[in-house]
Structures are given as structure tokens and as C-alpha cells.
Design brief:
The chain is built from one helix and no strands. The protein has 28 residues and is mostly helical. The chain has one domain.
Length: 28
């Protein structure tokens, strides 16, 4: 269960980074 939770956490973290990167690119 802990392994699945950490996987979901990493997936969410990566998703947030992608969204932030897109926003930064749009600002440029």
C-alpha cells in the first residue's frame, strides 16, 4: 500500500511540475 501511495504522490508531483512549466512557458 505504501508503495502505491508513494507512486501516486510522485505522479501528482510530476503532473504539477508539468503544469507549472507550461504556465511559465506561456508567460514567456
Amino acid at each position: 500500500a505504501s508503495r502505491l501511495t508513494s507512486g501516486v504522490y510522485i505522479y501528482r508531483l510530476t503532473g504539477n511540475n508539468v503544469v507549472m512549466t507550461k504556465k511559465m512557458m506561456l508567460n514567456k
